[in-house]
Amino acid sequence: MKKTLVLGATDNPARYAYRAIHQLKQHGHEVVPVGIRKGQVAGLDIRNDRPAAEGVDTVTLYVGPQNQPGWYDYILDLNPKRIIFNPGTENPELEKLAQQRGIETEEACTLVMLSVGQY
Length: 119
Description:
InterPro entries: CoA-bd (IPR003781), NAD(P)-bd_dom_sf (IPR036291). The chain has about 120 residues and is α/β, with parallel strands linked by helices.
């Protein structure tokens, strides 16, 4: 299964990041939730620091492009295999930086990918 860091994690059930964390866990993926505020989702603590995470396969973004620049170094230094830009998080600048480091990028919806078996 794919270790996934969810950037923009929240304990608000109305948010897509919340739903994605639950779905990722239900599909057997290890999840590292990182958000602005501490809390809990799906039995996991939401980290509001920049935790070192080894072996991250995927970073799935739920942070808008205007708030991403402060996260660039953290995301890229995780050296994930891919970054998923969920709807509303598309960012050509970060995509280019990632691709220059050999990181695959996808503009897609994590929830849809999970539901159709393409995650």
